[in-house]
Amino acid sequence: MKFIIRSYRNVYGGLSTESWLLAFITFINRSGMMVLPFLNLYLTESLHFSVTRAGIVLSLFGVGSMIGSFLGGWLTDRIGYFKVSLFSLVVGGVSFILLSQVRSFEALCICMLLSSIIVESLRPALSSSVAIFSKPENFTRSFSLLRMAINLGASFGPAIGGLLAAASYTWLFIGDGATSIAAGIFFYFYFRSRSAHIVIKKDDNNADNKTPYTDIPFLVFILFCCLYAILFFQIFTTLPLYYRNVHHLSEPNIGLLLALNGIIVVFFEMAFVYTFEKKFPLPNIIITGVLLSGIAMIVLNFIKADWILYVSMILLSFSEILAMPFMMT
Of 166, 199, 232, which residue constitutes the final position of a domain? Predict the structure, then answer.
C-alpha cells in the first residue's frame, strides 16, 4: 500500500491547479456516464426492442463517438477548447435527458447518433485544455491524472446508475444529463476568464507535420488496438445483458460489478505502470493485457457460477491496466 501511495505522489505531485480542476470536472462528468452500461437492458426490457435492434442503437452510439472525436478536434483547432467543452457538457447533458422521452426505434437511432456526437466531442477539447494548462515536462502526468479521473468516475457511475435504473430508467437518463450539465456549469464559472482559453493554430509550414495515414506499422498497430477495444468494451454492451439474462442479476448488482473495474484500475494502474515499464518490454506488457481480456471472456463459457463474474471482471480490469496505458504511448 505504501508503494502505491508513493507512486501516486511521484506522478501527481506538482501539477497545476487547472489540471486538477479539469480532472475534477472529468470526474463529475464520468460519474454521470451511467446510461451506457444499462442501455442494452433499457432497450430490450423497457422499450422491448429485439437484441438486433438494440445492437443497432448501440452501434450508432459508437459511430457517433468516432464522428464526435474527429469533429471535436476539428472545432477545437478553430474555435478553442472552451466553447467546444462547454457546448458538449451542457447540450450533451440536455440531449440525454431528452433521450428518455424517445420511444420509436427510428427516432432513437437518430437521437442516439446526435447525442453521441455531441458528448464525445468533449474528448479532444479536454485533451487540448490539459495540454494548455500543463508545463511541457508535466504533459504525461497531467494526462495520467485525467485518465485516473475517468476511471474513478467509471467506478461511481455504474454503481449509482444501477440504483437509479432499479427505480426508473427515466431517472437514469436524468441523472446522466444532470451531472453533465453540472460539470458544464462548474467549467464555465472557473475557465471563462482564464487567459489560456485560446485557439491553437497549427503551423502549416512545419515540415515535420506528416500524415499518420502513410505510416503502415502504425496503421497495423491501430487496427489491433481497435480489435482489442471491440472485445474490451463489451463490458458496456453485451456483458450487462449477459449478467441479466443468464445470471439474473439486478440492476444494482450489475452496477456494483461494473464499478469493480474502475476501482481496481484506480488503485493499481499507476503502481503497475510505474513498475512494469522499467522491467519489461512494452510489447510484452501489451500482449499480456490483450490475452487477459480473452481469458476473461472465455471463462464465462465454462463456469456458470456467479463468482466467475467477479473473476472475469478482475481479469478484464488488469487487462485494461496492462494494455491501455501503453497502447496510448
Answer: 199
Asked whether 130 and 19 are in contact (CB, 8 A), the reply is yes
* Whether residue 84 sits in one domain with residue 171: yes
In a domain, 110, yes or no: yes
CA distances (Å), 216 to each of 213, 282, 324, in order? 7, 19, 21
Is residue 8, in this structure, part of any structural domain at all?
no
Residue 248's pLDDT band, with cuts at 50, 70 and 90, is very high
| pTM, 2 dp | 0.83
Q: Which residues contact 29 (CB under 8 A, 6 or more apart)?
A: 89, 122, 153, 179, 180, 183
How is residue 153 written as a grid cell? 468516475
Residues 6+ apart with CB under 8 A from 17: none
| Helix residue ranges, H only, the chain | 2-12, 17-31, 36-41, 51-79, 81-99, 105-120, 122-132, 139-167, 169-191, 216-232, 238-245, 251-279, 282-302, 307-328
167-214 pLDDT, tens digit per residue, is 999 999 999 999 999 999 999 998 887 755 455 555 555 545 567 778
265-321 pLDDT, tens digit each = 888 887 787 788 778 898 999 999 999 999 999 999 999 999 999 999 999 999 999
Number of domains in the chain: 2
Task: Clarify whether residues 179 and 236 are in a common domain.
Answer: no
Could you tell me the residue range of the domain that residue 308 belongs to?
212-329
